[in-house]
Design brief:
little secondary structure
Length: 65
């Protein structure tokens, strides 16, 4: 097991991937192509719901992106 710190992650939000939740290895992440995860799946970015919006898919990707 290992851990790391990312300079783009602030309070669980990724500043490199336009404010998506930080998900190591997601498309646009600095780790893409540099590491392999045990399950082999590259997670898609997920954005927080905007104020007044309900997230129809709490675990899925945001269709606005």
């Amino acid at each position: 097991m290992s851990s790391w710190n990312c300079r783009y992650e602030v309070n669980g939000i990724c500043k490199k991937v336009d404010g998506a939740y930080c998900r190591p290895g997601m498309k646009g992440c600095v780790l893409v192509g540099k590491v392999k995860f045990q399950d082999g799946v590259v997670p898609p970015p997920v954005w927080p719901a905007r104020d007044g919006e309900s997230s129809g898919d709490p675990g899925g990707s945001d269709p606005r992106r």
